[in-house]
Design brief:
- The protein is mostly helical and about 90 residues long.
- The protein has 4 helices and no strands.
Length: about 90
Amino acid sequence: MNHSGARAVLFFVGAVLGVLIVRALFLEPIEEAGWRMFWEGASQGNSMPASTVLHSTTFAKCTGGFVVGGVIGLGLSLLLRKKPDQPK
C-alpha cells in the first residue's frame, strides 16, 4: 500500500474511533436516543430531515469526533512513516 493509501486508511480508522469515543463518552441519554432513531431509520430506508440532523448537538459532537480522530490518524501515519536512511 502506498503512503496516500495508508494515510487514508489511518484517517478513516481514526475518524471512526473518534465518533465511537464521542458516542460512548459525550452523548447525553436523549442524544443517544436520537442516534438510535437516526440509524434505525436509515437502515430501513427512512431518513430524518437534513435540517434537523445538521442542527443537532449530536451531529456537531460526532462531526467533531470524526475530524479530531481523523487528524490524529493522519498524525499517526506521519509518525509511523519510514524515513529514508540519510547518508552521512
